[in-house]
Amino acid sequence: MLYRAAWILPIAAPPIPGGWVLTGAGRIKGFGGPDSSPVVSSPEPVEIVDLGDTAVLPGLVNAHTHLELSWMRDQIQASRSMPAWAAKLMALRRGVETDPPEAIADAIREVRAAGTTLVGDVTNTLAPYELLAESGLGAAIFREILGFNVSSPEQTAAAARSQLDALPPREWLRPSVAPHAPYSVSPALFLAVAQAAGNRPLSVHLGESSEEMQFLQDGTGAWRELLGQLGAWNDRWQPPGCGPVEYLDRLGLVNARLLAVHGTQLDDRELARLSAAGATLVTCPRSNRWTGAGTPPIERFYASGVRVAIGTDSLASVADLNVFAELAEVRRLAPHVPAPRLLQSATIIGASALGFAEDFGTIEPGKRADLIGVQLPHGVADVEEYLVRGIEPDAIRWLSS
User: Fold this and answer.
1) Distance (Å, rounded) from C-alpha 129 to C-alpha 104?
2) What residues pair up with 129 in beta bridges, in sequence order?
3) What's the CA dihedral at 12, 308, 305, 204 to 10 degrees?
4) Span 382-399, mean pLDDT?
5) Cα separation, 288 vs 317, whole angstroms
6) Phi then psi for 128, rounded to 5 degrees?
7) E strand or H helix at 179, and its extent?
8) What is the distance between the alpha carbons of residues 151 and 5, in angstroms, rounded to a whole number?
9) Are the CB atoms for 71 and 99 separated by under 8 Å?
10) How far apart are CA 376 and CA 391, in angstroms?
11) Mean pLDDT on 200-229
């Protein structure tokens, strides 16, 4: 297939007006502008498709989802307190034996319809695994582990790792283990999970709420109270008296494999520490507002130099799983960040953080031809700015390779 369009967005290079992209056998063969001609070496005839007023770009990356919670859509109201919101979620989940697969399947279709090709999905049950395998989506699947007072952290992590090893292998699914958060995982369990993850990415909810900051400083507050109510408190635990990034750094977990999810409460020093380590910060601003975590300082994220990826979080805390809609909120909160950097966050940075940079995130020869076409009004001059202000699924089409 040879596609011509008003704009080609390679992401790793500036947008190309009036460009083309050549695909075949599921891979990108080449791309260029109106002054270059594609070199076609194929025994099969090449079909030429003129897309007209369309922007062609790689499928987007949703670096943080919880697909198994999709049945909770519209069931948990917005809160001013993250622990209070989480308590309602846990109470709701205790009322069902399993996460309904129909809601997960619907959510996966919604993800795909919104132009997303790769997700970083956090799961406690692995319920989305086979449904993702059937969908064609790529996914880093994080089997999340919680335990603030477990008797054998090594056995807990090893059991989860064995559960993943027993899964049927799928080409575009890469399962691993991940610790939940500093207020729900003991230091010993953090270390055991990181060891079990090996060289895979490590996703951690970090610096999400003010209550988390208080908990790490002095061991008090709403998270401490909730742990007690759940019977999960450990009297031997001592508060580290520091912020969440330093806490993980003391455990040796702040490195290029880390996905620090949310980061709503992180200060400039902590952001600089993440940046220096090559870690990635995944921002989910719409969910942060809904759960009471706060408003992420997105302009400070980018100013710090840390790699920023985009996530939607779950349908328990956000209206949809459309990364373009999340980009629109990021643009609203960070009006001075250049649009090309925001698009990189929603593509190649997320793909790199999840361990899929060799196949997703840019239009380059050899990469997977998961390309989307976004319908444009005629005469759009700044196509990147147009895209980061929000695109609805009905303006998106997947291009056949």
Assistant:
1) 10
2) none
3) -140
4) 97
5) 8
6) -75, -10
7) strand 173-179
8) 59
9) yes
10) 10
11) 97
Characterise 310 by phi-psi region: left (phi > 0), alpha (psi -120 to 50), beta (else). beta
Residue 368 CA to residue 125 CA, distance in Å, equals 29
Quote the tokens at residue 66.
Answer: 């919880």
**pTM score, whole prediction:** 0.97
**β-strands 60-65, 116-123 pairing:** parallel
Mean pLDDT, range 315-324, rounded to an integer: 98
Angle (CA) 99 318 110, round 5° = 65
- Residue 119 in tokens: 């997700």
pLDDT for the residue numbered 45? 78
| Token reading at 12 | 């790793």
**Residue indicated by tokens 């593509």:** 347
Q: What is the pLDDT of residues 155-189, one digit of tens each?
A: 999 999 999 999 999 999 999 999 999 999 999 99
Determine the 3-state secondary structure of 198 from DSSP. Answer: coil
Helices (runs of H) and strands (runs of E) counted in the chain:
15, 17
CA 72 from centroid of its chain's CA atoms:
19
The alpha helices in 251-371, defined as continuous H runs, are 268-277, 285-291, 298-304, 323-333, 339-345, 348-353
Taking phi over 0 as left and psi of -120 to 50 as alpha, with beta for the rest, 115 belongs to: left
Contact assessment for residue 212 and residue 181, using Cβ atoms and an 8 Å cutoff: yes
Q: Which position has the token pair 């988390």?
A: 212
Give residue 128's identity as a one-letter amino acid code.
P
Cβ-Cβ contacts under 8 Å for 197 (sequence gap 6 or more): 176, 177, 178, 257
For residue 267, count CB atoms less than 10 angstroms from its CB and return exposed for 0-12, middle for 13-18, buried for 19 or more: middle
Beta strand 138-145 pairing with 396-398: unpaired
Q: Which residues, in sequence order, are bridge partners of residue 203?
A: 259
Separation CA 387–CA 374 (nearest Å)? 8
Q: Which two tokens stand for residue 366?
A: 């050899």
**Within 10 Å of residue 45's Cβ, how many Cβ atoms?**
7
